[in-house]
Specification:
single chain, 410 residues, alpha+beta, Glucose Permease (Domain IIA), 2 domains, 9-stranded mixed sheet, 3-stranded antiparallel sheet, 6 helices, 14 strands, 15% strand
Protein backbone atom coordinates (compact mmCIF):
# COMPACT_ATOMS: atom_id res chain seq x y z
CA UNK A 1 0.00 0.00 0.00
CA UNK A 2 2.81 2.39 0.84
CA UNK A 3 4.35 1.72 -2.57
CA UNK A 4 1.01 2.35 -4.31
CA UNK A 5 0.57 5.68 -2.45
CA UNK A 6 4.13 6.65 -3.39
CA UNK A 7 3.46 5.86 -7.04
CA UNK A 8 0.21 7.83 -6.84
CA UNK A 9 2.02 10.89 -5.50
CA UNK A 10 4.58 10.62 -8.29
CA UNK A 11 1.86 10.36 -10.93
CA UNK A 12 0.05 13.39 -9.50
CA UNK A 13 3.27 15.38 -9.52
CA UNK A 14 3.84 14.35 -13.13
CA UNK A 15 0.33 15.40 -14.10
CA UNK A 16 0.71 18.82 -12.44
CA UNK A 17 4.01 19.50 -14.15
CA UNK A 18 2.76 18.32 -17.54
CA UNK A 19 -0.34 20.50 -17.23
CA UNK A 20 1.84 23.47 -16.30
CA UNK A 21 4.04 22.86 -19.32
CA UNK A 22 1.17 22.30 -21.74
CA UNK A 23 -0.71 25.51 -20.89
CA UNK A 24 0.27 28.37 -23.19
CA UNK A 25 1.30 31.26 -21.02
CA UNK A 26 0.64 34.76 -22.37
CA UNK A 27 2.50 37.17 -20.09
CA UNK A 28 1.94 40.85 -20.66
CA UNK A 29 5.19 42.21 -22.12
CA UNK A 30 5.69 45.86 -21.31
CA UNK A 31 8.68 46.06 -23.66
CA UNK A 32 9.84 43.96 -26.60
CA UNK A 33 12.85 43.94 -28.89
CA UNK A 34 10.49 45.21 -31.59
CA UNK A 35 9.90 48.39 -29.52
CA UNK A 36 13.64 49.00 -29.36
CA UNK A 37 14.04 48.24 -33.07
CA UNK A 38 11.39 50.89 -33.84
CA UNK A 39 13.31 53.43 -31.75
CA UNK A 40 16.51 52.57 -33.62
CA UNK A 41 14.71 53.12 -36.92
CA UNK A 42 13.65 56.57 -35.68
CA UNK A 43 17.23 57.24 -34.59
CA UNK A 44 18.43 56.35 -38.07
CA UNK A 45 15.99 58.85 -39.61
CA UNK A 46 17.17 61.54 -37.19
CA UNK A 47 20.76 60.73 -38.14
CA UNK A 48 19.95 61.27 -41.80
CA UNK A 49 18.27 64.60 -41.00
CA UNK A 50 21.34 65.61 -38.99
CA UNK A 51 23.65 64.98 -41.97
CA UNK A 52 21.38 67.02 -44.24
CA UNK A 53 21.32 69.95 -41.80
CA UNK A 54 25.09 69.83 -41.40
CA UNK A 55 25.56 69.92 -45.18
CA UNK A 56 23.35 73.01 -45.42
CA UNK A 57 25.24 74.67 -42.56
CA UNK A 58 28.58 73.93 -44.22
CA UNK A 59 27.32 75.59 -47.40
CA UNK A 60 26.62 78.83 -45.45
CA UNK A 61 29.72 78.68 -43.27
CA UNK A 62 31.57 81.54 -44.98
CA UNK A 63 28.57 83.68 -45.94
CA UNK A 64 28.22 86.31 -43.20
CA UNK A 65 25.20 87.86 -44.89
CA UNK A 66 23.27 84.66 -44.14
CA UNK A 67 23.70 84.81 -40.36
CA UNK A 68 19.98 84.53 -39.59
CA UNK A 69 19.63 81.65 -42.05
CA UNK A 70 22.49 79.90 -40.25
CA UNK A 71 20.83 80.58 -36.89
CA UNK A 72 17.63 78.97 -38.14
CA UNK A 73 19.54 75.89 -39.31
CA UNK A 74 21.40 75.74 -36.00
CA UNK A 75 18.07 75.89 -34.15
CA UNK A 76 16.86 72.99 -36.29
CA UNK A 77 20.08 71.12 -35.58
CA UNK A 78 19.60 71.65 -31.85
CA UNK A 79 16.03 70.36 -32.10
CA UNK A 80 17.34 67.32 -33.99
CA UNK A 81 19.96 66.58 -31.34
CA UNK A 82 17.36 67.05 -28.58
CA UNK A 83 15.14 64.52 -30.37
CA UNK A 84 18.08 62.12 -30.61
CA UNK A 85 18.68 62.51 -26.87
CA UNK A 86 15.03 61.74 -26.13
CA UNK A 87 15.27 58.72 -28.43
CA UNK A 88 18.36 57.36 -26.65
CA UNK A 89 16.77 57.99 -23.25
CA UNK A 90 13.73 55.98 -24.40
CA UNK A 91 16.04 53.19 -25.59
CA UNK A 92 17.78 53.09 -22.21
CA UNK A 93 14.43 53.00 -20.41
CA UNK A 94 13.25 50.13 -22.61
CA UNK A 95 16.52 48.22 -22.20
CA UNK A 96 16.27 48.52 -18.43
CA UNK A 97 12.65 47.31 -18.51
CA UNK A 98 13.67 44.46 -20.80
CA UNK A 99 16.48 43.48 -18.43
CA UNK A 100 14.04 43.35 -15.51
CA UNK A 101 11.59 41.27 -17.55
CA UNK A 102 14.27 38.88 -18.77
CA UNK A 103 15.64 38.40 -15.26
CA UNK A 104 12.14 37.43 -14.11
CA UNK A 105 11.70 35.08 -17.08
CA UNK A 106 15.09 33.51 -16.38
CA UNK A 107 14.18 32.77 -12.75
CA UNK A 108 10.87 31.27 -13.92
CA UNK A 109 12.61 29.08 -16.53
CA UNK A 110 15.15 27.87 -13.97
CA UNK A 111 12.37 26.95 -11.56
CA UNK A 112 10.54 25.04 -14.29
CA UNK A 113 13.77 23.29 -15.24
CA UNK A 114 14.32 22.21 -11.62
CA UNK A 115 10.74 20.86 -11.44
CA UNK A 116 11.15 19.01 -14.74
CA UNK A 117 14.46 17.51 -13.65
CA UNK A 118 12.91 16.38 -10.35
CA UNK A 119 10.07 14.76 -12.31
CA UNK A 120 12.56 12.85 -14.44
CA UNK A 121 14.48 11.67 -11.35
CA UNK A 122 11.26 10.63 -9.65
CA UNK A 123 10.29 8.45 -12.61
CA UNK A 124 13.68 6.74 -12.62
CA UNK A 125 13.58 6.13 -8.84
CA UNK A 126 10.03 4.74 -9.10
CA UNK A 127 11.06 2.29 -11.80
CA UNK A 128 14.08 1.17 -9.80
CA UNK A 129 11.94 0.54 -6.70
CA UNK A 130 9.57 -1.57 -8.80
CA UNK A 131 12.55 -3.54 -10.03
CA UNK A 132 12.21 -2.17 -13.55
CA UNK A 133 15.89 -1.51 -13.90
CA UNK A 134 15.53 -1.32 -17.67
CA UNK A 135 13.01 -1.56 -20.45
CA UNK A 136 14.63 -4.86 -21.51
CA UNK A 137 13.94 -6.41 -18.10
CA UNK A 138 10.24 -5.61 -18.54
CA UNK A 139 10.18 -7.43 -21.88
CA UNK A 140 12.16 -10.43 -20.64
CA UNK A 141 9.59 -11.03 -17.90
CA UNK A 142 6.85 -11.71 -20.45
CA UNK A 143 5.24 -15.10 -19.86
CA UNK A 144 3.81 -15.41 -23.37
CA UNK A 145 3.77 -13.69 -26.74
CA UNK A 146 0.46 -12.03 -25.84
CA UNK A 147 1.98 -10.82 -22.59
CA UNK A 148 5.00 -9.60 -24.54
CA UNK A 149 2.82 -7.48 -26.86
CA UNK A 150 0.95 -6.11 -23.87
CA UNK A 151 4.21 -5.22 -22.15
CA UNK A 152 5.52 -3.69 -25.38
CA UNK A 153 2.51 -1.36 -25.54
CA UNK A 154 3.12 -0.31 -21.92
CA UNK A 155 6.79 0.28 -22.66
CA UNK A 156 5.97 2.42 -25.70
CA UNK A 157 3.70 4.57 -23.53
CA UNK A 158 6.40 4.82 -20.87
CA UNK A 159 9.03 5.63 -23.46
CA UNK A 160 6.83 8.31 -25.06
CA UNK A 161 6.15 9.88 -21.68
CA UNK A 162 9.81 9.74 -20.69
CA UNK A 163 10.84 11.23 -24.03
CA UNK A 164 8.43 14.13 -23.51
CA UNK A 165 9.94 14.78 -20.10
CA UNK A 166 13.45 14.68 -21.56
CA UNK A 167 12.45 16.90 -24.51
CA UNK A 168 10.87 19.45 -22.16
CA UNK A 169 13.97 19.40 -20.00
CA UNK A 170 16.23 20.02 -23.00
CA UNK A 171 13.93 22.80 -24.26
CA UNK A 172 14.03 24.49 -20.87
CA UNK A 173 17.82 24.29 -20.78
CA UNK A 174 17.96 25.90 -24.23
CA UNK A 175 15.50 28.60 -23.14
CA UNK A 176 17.66 29.38 -20.10
CA UNK A 177 20.76 29.79 -22.26
CA UNK A 178 18.85 32.09 -24.63
CA UNK A 179 17.59 34.19 -21.72
CA UNK A 180 21.12 34.52 -20.38
CA UNK A 181 22.36 35.64 -23.80
CA UNK A 182 19.50 38.14 -24.13
CA UNK A 183 20.30 39.47 -20.68
CA UNK A 184 23.96 40.04 -21.52
CA UNK A 185 23.06 41.65 -24.87
CA UNK A 186 20.59 44.01 -23.18
CA UNK A 187 23.15 45.04 -20.57
CA UNK A 188 25.80 45.68 -23.23
CA UNK A 189 23.35 47.69 -25.36
CA UNK A 190 22.34 49.73 -22.30
CA UNK A 191 25.92 50.69 -21.53
CA UNK A 192 26.53 51.64 -25.18
CA UNK A 193 23.36 53.78 -25.18
CA UNK A 194 24.43 55.53 -21.97
CA UNK A 195 27.80 56.40 -23.52
CA UNK A 196 26.01 57.68 -26.64
CA UNK A 197 23.73 59.79 -24.43
CA UNK A 198 26.69 61.51 -22.76
CA UNK A 199 28.23 62.27 -26.18
CA UNK A 200 24.97 63.69 -27.53
CA UNK A 201 24.46 65.94 -24.50
CA UNK A 202 27.97 67.30 -24.95
CA UNK A 203 27.22 67.89 -28.64
CA UNK A 204 23.96 69.67 -27.74
CA UNK A 205 25.76 72.08 -25.40
CA UNK A 206 28.28 72.86 -28.13
CA UNK A 207 25.52 73.50 -30.68
CA UNK A 208 23.70 75.85 -28.30
CA UNK A 209 26.88 77.85 -27.74
CA UNK A 210 27.50 78.06 -31.48
CA UNK A 211 23.90 79.16 -32.15
CA UNK A 212 24.08 81.96 -29.58
CA UNK A 213 27.43 83.13 -30.96
CA UNK A 214 25.96 83.60 -34.43
CA UNK A 215 23.83 86.51 -33.16
CA UNK A 216 26.69 87.95 -31.11
CA UNK A 217 29.07 87.87 -34.09
CA UNK A 218 26.72 90.03 -36.17
CA UNK A 219 27.83 93.00 -34.06
CA UNK A 220 31.29 92.85 -35.67
CA UNK A 221 29.91 94.20 -38.96
CA UNK A 222 27.77 97.33 -38.74
CA UNK A 223 26.20 96.91 -42.19
CA UNK A 224 25.23 93.33 -41.47
CA UNK A 225 23.83 94.36 -38.09
CA UNK A 226 21.64 97.09 -39.59
CA UNK A 227 20.43 94.77 -42.34
CA UNK A 228 19.55 92.10 -39.79
CA UNK A 229 17.68 94.60 -37.59
CA UNK A 230 15.68 95.90 -40.56
CA UNK A 231 14.76 92.37 -41.59
CA UNK A 232 13.73 91.35 -38.06
CA UNK A 233 11.61 94.46 -37.52
CA UNK A 234 9.82 93.91 -40.81
CA UNK A 235 9.16 90.31 -39.84
CA UNK A 236 7.86 91.27 -36.38
CA UNK A 237 5.49 93.84 -37.92
CA UNK A 238 4.18 91.21 -40.35
CA UNK A 239 3.72 88.76 -37.48
CA UNK A 240 1.73 91.29 -35.44
CA UNK A 241 -0.53 92.01 -38.41
CA UNK A 242 -1.09 88.29 -38.92
CA UNK A 243 -1.90 87.81 -35.23
CA UNK A 244 -4.59 90.46 -35.41
CA UNK A 245 -6.01 88.91 -38.58
CA UNK A 246 -6.12 85.45 -36.99
CA UNK A 247 -7.69 86.87 -33.84
CA UNK A 248 -10.48 88.52 -35.85
CA UNK A 249 -10.97 85.33 -37.86
CA UNK A 250 -11.30 83.28 -34.66
CA UNK A 251 -13.83 85.76 -33.24
CA UNK A 252 -15.89 85.52 -36.45
CA UNK A 253 -15.84 81.71 -36.30
CA UNK A 254 -16.93 81.75 -32.67
CA UNK A 255 -19.74 84.18 -33.44
CA UNK A 256 -20.90 81.99 -36.33
CA UNK A 257 -21.00 79.03 -33.96
CA UNK A 258 -22.93 80.97 -31.36
CA UNK A 259 -19.93 81.21 -29.02
CA UNK A 260 -18.98 84.29 -27.05
CA UNK A 261 -15.88 86.11 -28.24
CA UNK A 262 -15.63 88.33 -25.18
CA UNK A 263 -12.22 88.57 -23.53
CA UNK A 264 -11.55 86.00 -20.83
CA UNK A 265 -12.09 87.58 -17.41
CA UNK A 266 -9.40 87.42 -14.76
CA UNK A 267 -5.73 88.25 -14.66
CA UNK A 268 -2.54 86.67 -15.94
CA UNK A 269 -0.26 84.20 -14.21
CA UNK A 270 3.50 84.02 -14.66
CA UNK A 271 4.27 82.08 -17.82
CA UNK A 272 7.39 80.51 -16.23
CA UNK A 273 8.52 79.76 -12.69
CA UNK A 274 11.21 82.46 -12.78
CA UNK A 275 10.44 86.05 -11.68
CA UNK A 276 13.73 87.52 -12.95
CA UNK A 277 13.28 90.21 -15.63
CA UNK A 278 16.22 90.79 -17.96
CA UNK A 279 14.50 93.26 -20.30
CA UNK A 280 11.29 95.26 -20.03
CA UNK A 281 8.94 96.89 -22.54
CA UNK A 282 10.27 100.09 -24.13
CA UNK A 283 13.72 101.56 -24.74
CA UNK A 284 16.68 99.34 -23.99
CA UNK A 285 20.25 98.59 -24.98
CA UNK A 286 19.71 95.75 -27.42
CA UNK A 287 21.21 92.53 -26.01
CA UNK A 288 24.07 91.28 -28.15
CA UNK A 289 23.72 94.37 -30.37
CA UNK A 290 20.88 92.80 -32.35
CA UNK A 291 17.16 93.28 -31.91
CA UNK A 292 14.71 96.10 -31.46
CA UNK A 293 15.78 98.84 -29.07
CA UNK A 294 12.09 99.57 -28.57
CA UNK A 295 11.26 96.28 -26.93
CA UNK A 296 7.64 95.22 -27.35
CA UNK A 297 7.65 92.52 -24.68
CA UNK A 298 9.18 91.36 -21.43
CA UNK A 299 12.16 89.01 -21.26
CA UNK A 300 12.22 86.58 -18.32
CA UNK A 301 15.61 85.05 -17.56
CA UNK A 302 17.08 82.35 -15.29
CA UNK A 303 15.07 79.64 -17.02
CA UNK A 304 17.59 77.45 -18.89
CA UNK A 305 16.65 75.13 -21.74
CA UNK A 306 14.24 72.80 -19.93
CA UNK A 307 11.82 75.02 -17.98
CA UNK A 308 8.10 74.56 -18.71
CA UNK A 309 6.17 77.50 -20.17
CA UNK A 310 2.59 77.93 -18.96
CA UNK A 311 -0.42 79.53 -20.62
CA UNK A 312 -0.68 82.84 -18.77
CA UNK A 313 -4.41 82.88 -19.46
CA UNK A 314 -6.90 80.40 -20.92
CA UNK A 315 -7.62 80.63 -24.64
CA UNK A 316 -7.22 79.20 -28.12
CA UNK A 317 -3.84 78.76 -29.81
CA UNK A 318 -3.81 80.77 -33.05
CA UNK A 319 -0.05 80.53 -33.84
CA UNK A 320 2.50 77.79 -33.18
CA UNK A 321 5.52 78.10 -35.50
CA UNK A 322 9.09 79.33 -36.06
CA UNK A 323 10.29 82.79 -37.14
CA UNK A 324 13.74 84.37 -37.35
CA UNK A 325 12.82 86.96 -34.73
CA UNK A 326 10.83 84.95 -32.16
CA UNK A 327 12.26 81.51 -32.93
CA UNK A 328 9.75 78.88 -31.84
CA UNK A 329 6.77 80.89 -30.59
CA UNK A 330 3.15 80.43 -29.62
CA UNK A 331 0.30 82.95 -29.60
CA UNK A 332 -2.89 82.38 -27.60
CA UNK A 333 -6.09 84.31 -28.26
CA UNK A 334 -8.16 85.20 -25.21
CA UNK A 335 -10.93 87.00 -27.14
CA UNK A 336 -11.70 90.64 -28.08
CA UNK A 337 -8.21 91.53 -29.29
CA UNK A 338 -6.54 90.05 -26.20
CA UNK A 339 -3.55 87.77 -26.93
CA UNK A 340 -0.36 86.54 -25.28
CA UNK A 341 2.83 85.64 -27.15
CA UNK A 342 5.61 83.33 -25.92
CA UNK A 343 8.92 83.41 -27.83
CA UNK A 344 12.32 81.69 -28.18
CA UNK A 345 11.03 78.27 -27.09
CA UNK A 346 13.29 75.29 -27.50
CA UNK A 347 10.14 73.28 -28.32
CA UNK A 348 6.40 73.89 -28.69
CA UNK A 349 3.86 71.59 -27.04
CA UNK A 350 0.61 72.90 -28.57
CA UNK A 351 -0.94 73.17 -32.04
CA UNK A 352 -3.11 75.75 -33.77
CA UNK A 353 -6.78 75.47 -32.81
CA UNK A 354 -6.04 73.82 -29.47
CA UNK A 355 -7.80 75.24 -26.42
CA UNK A 356 -5.57 75.60 -23.35
CA UNK A 357 -6.44 76.28 -19.76
CA UNK A 358 -4.57 78.79 -17.66
CA UNK A 359 -1.43 77.05 -16.37
CA UNK A 360 -1.26 74.37 -19.09
CA UNK A 361 2.25 73.66 -20.38
CA UNK A 362 2.52 75.05 -23.92
CA UNK A 363 6.27 74.75 -24.51
CA UNK A 364 9.81 74.60 -23.13
CA UNK A 365 12.14 77.59 -22.74
CA UNK A 366 15.14 78.00 -25.01
CA UNK A 367 17.12 80.39 -27.20
CA UNK A 368 15.74 79.92 -30.72
CA UNK A 369 15.48 82.78 -33.20
CA UNK A 370 16.98 86.19 -32.41
CA UNK A 371 18.36 85.26 -29.02
CA UNK A 372 21.78 85.10 -27.38
CA UNK A 373 20.80 82.90 -24.43
CA UNK A 374 17.87 81.04 -22.89
CA UNK A 375 14.96 83.21 -21.81
CA UNK A 376 11.25 83.69 -22.44
CA UNK A 377 10.05 86.67 -24.47
CA UNK A 378 6.50 87.39 -23.28
CA UNK A 379 3.97 89.81 -24.79
CA UNK A 380 0.42 90.84 -23.90
CA UNK A 381 -1.87 92.50 -26.42
CA UNK A 382 -5.16 94.08 -25.35
CA UNK A 383 -7.61 95.62 -27.83
CA UNK A 384 -5.01 95.00 -30.52
CA UNK A 385 -2.29 97.02 -28.72
CA UNK A 386 0.76 95.55 -26.99
CA UNK A 387 0.90 96.54 -23.32
CA UNK A 388 3.44 96.17 -20.54
CA UNK A 389 2.88 92.84 -18.72
CA UNK A 390 4.54 94.32 -15.63
CA UNK A 391 3.37 97.90 -15.51
CA UNK A 392 0.88 99.83 -17.65
CA UNK A 393 1.56 103.42 -16.73
CA UNK A 394 2.82 104.71 -13.41
CA UNK A 395 1.22 101.97 -11.28
CA UNK A 396 0.98 98.21 -11.69
CA UNK A 397 -2.42 97.11 -13.00
CA UNK A 398 -4.59 94.55 -11.26
CA UNK A 399 -4.13 91.12 -12.79
CA UNK A 400 -0.72 91.81 -14.34
CA UNK A 401 2.56 90.15 -13.34
CA UNK A 402 3.88 91.23 -9.94
CA UNK A 403 6.56 90.22 -7.49
CA UNK A 404 9.40 90.32 -10.00
CA UNK A 405 13.08 91.22 -9.75
CA UNK A 406 14.72 93.43 -12.38
CA UNK A 407 18.13 92.58 -13.76
CA UNK A 408 20.81 94.64 -12.02
CA UNK A 409 18.88 94.91 -8.77
CA UNK A 410 19.58 91.38 -7.54
Amino acid sequence: MRQMRRIGRILMAMACVMIMLSVELTPVMAVTWADIAALKDDASDLGSQKKELQARLDALANDKSQAMARKKLLDQQIANTSAQIQNVESQIKNYEALITQTEGELVDAQEREAAQYELFCSRVRAMEKRGEVSYWSVLFRASSFTDLLSRLDIINEIMDSDQKVIDELQALQLEIEEKKTQLEDSKAETEAAKADLVAKKTELNSQRTQANQVIQQLVSNENETEAAIDGLEEEEAAIQAEIQRLNRELAAQQAANGQSSQSNPGGYIWPVDSRYITSTVGGRASPGGIGSTNHKGTDIGRVGYTSPIYASKAGTVIVSQYSNSYGNYVVISHGSGNTTLYGHMSSRKVTVGQYVNQGDVIGITGSTGNSTGPHLHFEITENGVRVNPLNDGAEPRMGYLTGYTLSGTA
